[in-house]
Amino acid sequence: MDKLQKLIDIEEIKNLKHRYFRAIDMADFSLLDDVFAPDITIDYRGGTYRWQSEGKDTIKESLRHAFHNQTAAMHTAHHPEIEVRSESEAVGKWYLQDIFYNFDLGSVTQGTALYEDKYTKIDNQWLIQHSEYDRIWEHVSPINSEGKFTKILLKEKGIQKQE
């Protein structure tokens, strides 16, 4: 594999990861069809949770119920370390920073984590095959009652959950 193709693959994988975060934060779950491999597996280990799952449809449905109309979220990934191992396999590490408001619980979770992903190229398109992370730190606190949200996209686009 030549260097130019590796660089192109790395950029495509960066875009793939960014689409994942955009999809969940904006409740665009159909976008995940072009992000997840059919047999994707995940293992997310936080301070207050561990979520393990497999299969694109199962994971998409779980995410739909996590990012509902009583939540607001922001996920960003930084400092990618991507290694293209072959024409169809790659691995990557990402530094995550996220904020997740859960209005049902009256809590906000903020933190960082280190993602470790495996990617596969199917029909000339990179997809996430496996994704896992360990939290570096996680802070859960009550939502500041003095603050005011003036816009929450998930309130409009997320599945309707009773307030």
Element layout with pairings:
Elements lengths: L2 H23 L10 E10 L4 E5 L1 H11 L4 E14 L4 E14 L4 E16 L2 E18 L10 H5 L6
Parallel strand pairs: 1-6
Antiparallel strand pairs: 1-2, 3-4, 4-5, 5-6
CATH architectural grouping: Roll
> Can you tell me the residue ranges where pLDDT is under 50 for at least 5 consecutive residues?
none
| Rg | 17 Å
Tally of alpha and pi helices:
3
Task: Describe what you observe in this structure.
With 163 residues, the protein is an alpha+beta fold. The chain has 3 helices and 6 strands, in the order H-E-E-H-E-E-E-E-H. The protein has one domain (3-157): Nuclear Transport Factor 2, Chain: A (Roll). It has a 6-stranded mixed sheet. A hairpin with a 4-residue loop joins strand 1 (36-45) and strand 2 (50-54). The N and C termini lie far apart (53 Å).
Condensed summary:
With 163 residues, this protein is α+β, with helices and mostly antiparallel strands. It has helices at residues 3-25, 56-66, 153-157, and strands at residues 36-45, 50-54, 71-84, 89-102, 107-122, 125-142.
Please tag this protein with its features.
single chain; alpha+beta; 163 residues; Nuclear Transport Factor 2, Chain: A
